[in-house]
Predict the 3D structure of the following.
Amino acid sequence: MCFSVMLLPFLQLCTNIVDSAGLYGDYTNSPDVNFSWAKWWDGSYQQGKAAYVNDQGGFRRDLVRSNNQVDYWLFKKLHCNSVVLGKNNCLYQPDYINAYYSRDFIGKDSALHQILKLKAIQDTLARMGKTLVLAYSPCKAYYYPDDFPDDLKCTKAGPTNYQTFLQLADSLHLNQIDFNAWFLKMKQTSKDVLYPREGIHWSVYGAILAADSLTRYMEQLRHTKMEHMSWTNLRHSSRSEDTDEDVFKALNLIFPIYTDTFTYPDLVFKEDSTKAKPKVIYIGDSFCINWIHDNYMQFSNTNWEFWFYFHQVINQSNRDNPDGWIPINNYDWIGKIKSTDCIVIMYTSHNLHELGNGFIEQAYDYFYPEKQS
């Protein structure tokens, strides 16, 4: 009997008789090694082969999940360095909490320097018939501030990047839309999950509401009518889809740590030739990914691009192939700006210390070369 149990991993390795789900996160399997006498005598072959066999062993992924689950049940231990467990089984990434407590504050002078440059870029683009919008995506720390782990709580003191950018941009009449404040307001009345406890981004449903709100704001700025998403049915499910449990997946557990009911609209896209579909460039962090997945960009824009952290270019043709994303350094992004209608810069609060990731400085230097220091 014991021998049969010991034989099971070998049978799984050879036959893959059980379809075991893969592991999420930063898991890299050890590569196989080729035999040579030199590697044999210095021991590197044995070490490399042992690591490879261990990673490829049958049921290894299931054993990892089982180990993680037991550690969570017994010790509330999570096997993911970038995730912490808060109260009421709310998962956080520490950077969001640090931003909430102003631990990453860049200072008012630095923020003003950024906003002044962005205002100048907005004015230049406006003279070219183009629209620039600064958007603040919601932050989980603001949405669930009462559930922080005790060891990360402190007395909130001083201004945050979010508050400072918001106030400065408002004083300079920069086009901006604050999804963070809007989500906090809706939290009191919404019957649907806007920010899942097992995810780090807004919910699929919340992202769709935000996309429609952005469309309406751009209609006001551009004095036009644009196409809107609609739905005929709202599905409710206790099983999350897409990004609604993206942080939980990284924990590689077997069972959910929080049960909720999620809302998924069955989207309807109706073409209307009388409505405008501007060309739009989105610049920002991963909160834009939802809009790619639900086809908002494809439906609402004649042409769209997402400049991910102003590092990689994602578009309709390469959206599902990360290996095909284009490095911004090898791209005529200035030419793309000249041929677009709108630029939307959207970041969540914990990324505002790097607002634009270099785009603001480089665009400003291009449009105002005489002011380069």
Summary: The CA atoms of residues 53 and 69 lie 24 Å apart. The chain has two domains: 2-77, 85-371. Residues 108-127 form the longest helix (20 residues).
